[in-house]
Amino acid sequence: MLAPYAVSDAESRGRRYPETAPRYRGEFQRDRDRIVHCSAFRRLEYKTQVFVNHEGDMFRTRLTHSIEVAQIGRSIARVLAINEDLVEAISLAHDLGHTPFGHAGQDALDSCMSGYGGFEHNLQSLRVVEELEQRYAEFSGLNLTFETREGILKHCTLQHASGLGELGERFLQRQHPSLEAQVANVADEIAYNNHDVDDGLRAGLITLEQLDEVELFREHHRQVRNRYPHLNGRRMVNEVVRRMINHLVIDLLEASQARLAEYAPEDVSAVRTTPAPLIGFSDEMKQKNRQLKRFLRDNMYRHYRVHRMTAKARRIIHALFHEFMGDPALLPGETQETVRQSEQAQGEHGRARAVADYIAGMTDRFAISEYERIFNPHSS
Ligand code: MG
User: Which of these, 100, 243, 295, 308, is most buried using a 10 Å CB contact count?
Assistant: First the structure.
């Protein structure tokens, strides 16, 4: 059933701690199942990308985002006859390391950690599945397959890569990851660009008139207007967005199929050394997609209402970090112990890393209430 260039159970590079093969599941199904059952996955429900969680129940959370990525990724994988279970596992895990308050939180924590090796959410997702989850008697982390962990690590600086062993190799050798990882990566982009359009309209941060500047939106907006002249409001927006997603997915499939036919990789290792990644949009769609991203950056992510939220988020993260770093006795008992052990092993760097892990694991609302408990004299 799988194409020769797909990742298969039989050719997996395996798990760090060897385990017997699952009886009624595949290896990547097992990875997916472990991800769904882990506590960092449940917390995605109360973490956001652009909007802070309590801003409204209508917006995407990182949990629904991850499910959308998995849906788009699996549809693509099935058509290309590559490993759907692996795409699903990577998609569901890709944001596990995200801090509260989306990108603002990540940037704030990175700046707090600048003297201690920095903070990067991709690396943190890996850290969650390799170390931080404590669920199994025999190992820390989830002991996922190499292929799932490789897919989670979407980007990485060369400096970090050199400390990552086999997972860092591809960055140092400038190779590509599996097709499954490439699919999860593009599915992520399709999902967030489209739901940011949808959520941005709902929040009143952007308007239809503004969006008509964007070619991809305009063409589908016109089609829908022509075909359903009486349709308006949310239903019209939903119809446009679903057409955009469909258009992007079909373009991606056709362009990727053409590249797969051209390069005809014999196996997974041939996929790694092609001149450019095989999974991707056509040149025309790349252009349109870039225009959409630019629009969102200029009009939505830099909108003053978003900026107010991110400025608040930054203050909360900085304040929590510096307070806990200066006085770890303010931390809850179990976390204090983790910080103490980490400091014993790696000194001040260890202390900072454990504090960053604690903050990164917080949901938006937990970070806000923790801030209240520490800084508000009327709070207990
Ligand atoms: Mg994502």
Answer: 100
Q: For residue 188, how far is its CA from the centre of ligand 1 (angstroms)?
A: 5
Q: Is 248 left (phi over 0), alpha (psi -120 to 50) or beta?
A: alpha
CA distance 121 to 167: 16
- Cα dihedral 116/121/125/126 (nearest 10): -50
Give the tokens for residue 291.
């225009």
Whether residues 326 and 214 share a domain: the answer is no
| Residue 258 token pair | 């053409």
For 181-235, write each residue's pLDDT tens digit: 999 999 999 999 999 999 999 888 999 999 999 999 999 999 999 999 999 999 9
Task: Note the pTM of the prediction, 2 decimals.
Answer: 0.96
Same domain for 346 and 227, yes or no, is no
**What are 236's two structure tokens?**
């019209």
CA of residue 122 to ligand 1 center, whole Å: 10
User: How far, in Å, is the centroid of ligand 1 from the Cα of 66?
Assistant: 7
Ligand 1: centre distance to CA 53 (Å): 16
Interatomic CA distance for residues 24 and 14, integer angstroms: 18
For residues 265 and 335, membership in a common domain is answered with: no
Same domain, 285 and 321: no
